[in-house]
Write a structure and sequence with these properties.
Low-confidence stretches: none
Order of helices and strands: HEEEHH
CATH topology: Beta Polymerase, domain 2
Strand content: 15-25%
CATH superfamily: Beta Polymerase, domain 2
Number of helices: 3
Number of domains: 1
Distance between the termini: 43 Å
Mean pLDDT: 87
Shape: elongated
Helix content: 25-40%
Strand order of the largest sheet: 1-2-3
Largest sheet: 3 strands, antiparallel
Length: 78
């Protein structure tokens, strides 16, 4: 869970953005990271089932975010 939160934070930092706030990261069971237009919720499976955010936001439009393809490594010049 912490690695996911760190990766999200690093990705936003590279864009020059910092979280407006975050909660739960030190407990290691869940985290909320607020970037104003984007709020990341990270849960361990039992905690995710307990909070059931998908059920609470059932009428909201879902947006899938996919990882970008990584560029091929550059070949050294001969």
């Amino acid at each position: 869970m912490q690695a996911i939160a760190d990766a999200i934070e690093e990705g936003f930092r590279k864009q020059g953005l910092r979280a407006l706030g975050s909660e739960g990261r030190t407990e290691g069971r869940w985290a909320l990271m607020d970037y104003n237009d984007v709020v990341a919720h990270i849960f361990l499976e039992p905690v995710r089932v307990f909070y059931n955010l998908e059920g609470l936001w059932a009428e909201a439009t879902a947006t899938e975010v996919k990882d970008r393809a990584k560029p091929a490594p550059k070949k050294p010049k001969a």
